[in-house]
Amino acid sequence: MRAVEVKNLYFKYEKEWVLEDINFSLEDKEFMAIIGPNGGGKTTLLKILLGFLKPSTGEVKIYGKPPKDNSQIIGYVPQHTNFSLDIPITVFDIVLQGRLKKGKFFYSKEDKEKANEILNKLKIYQFKDRKIKDLSGGQRQKVLIARALVSEPKIVMMDEPTSAIDPTGQKEILDLIESLEITRLVVSHDIKILLRDVDKIAYIHKKAVIHEGPKLNIPKDKHFCEVELIEFLKDESCGI
């Protein structure tokens, strides 16, 4: 069963079409990067895949079911810039939120053990009792990733996970994403993500152009600006 399947997807806000004829699929444990210009429809597509928005027409399946019917297996990592730092909450409490389910009002011993396990795995256990406002941007992003992973999802979807983070933090986050052994779908303006071992790239600008691997043949030792990278992909016959 495919992890993600999108067929003939169209979406419009009022009278304006934002996405047109989007088609792609993603296999279990594959890694897809979604790139494209501002206003091109990347975030809208992510919201549809998460079940936050409903397609105008077309079909979206996450492991064989509509996103809303399979939300329990989806981990979501929002931009840390959208997270309120005014809330006096600890790292451990934020990560535990990932174990909450509908109708559940307390955390079990297993929940707390799983949270500790994830904090250790992501090497942020030492921040367990700190307030989220006291962490760096990269550390906060790891906390949000930990919250998504503690629910033991089959697929994780991330929105700009390296935005507003220093270069060292960006590398740490990209290393972490690349190491995960689950299906990953990442919306990003950071073209450095394309230098990782992504299996597929979706270039979204109202319509979608998909470049498929199995691994992209992008030189790891060359610096690209966005225009140069898009031109390189075009030369590699991805059609962007």
TrEMBL record:
Keyword DNA damage (UniProt): no
Domain ABC transporter: 4-231
CDD domains: ABC_Metallic_Cations
This protein's UniProt keywords: ATP-binding, Nucleotide-binding, Transport
SUPFAM superfamilies assigned: P-loop containing nucleoside triphosphate hydrolases
Keyword set includes Chaperone: no
Matches recorded under Pfam families: ABC_tran (PF00005)
InterPro entries for the chain: AAA+_ATPase (IPR003593), ABC_transporter-like_ATP-bd (IPR003439), ABC_transporter-like_CS (IPR017871), Metal_Ion_Import_ABC (IPR050153), P-loop_NTPase (IPR027417)
Molecular function as annotated in GO: ATP binding; ATP hydrolysis activity
UniProt family annotation: Belongs to the ABC transporter superfamily.
Classification via PANTHER family: METAL TRANSPORT SYSTEM ATP-BINDING PROTEIN TM_0124-RELATED
Protein name: Metal ABC transporter ATP-binding protein
The species this protein was found in: Caminibacter pacificus
Classification lineage: Bacteria, Pseudomonadati, Campylobacterota, Epsilonproteobacteria, Nautiliales
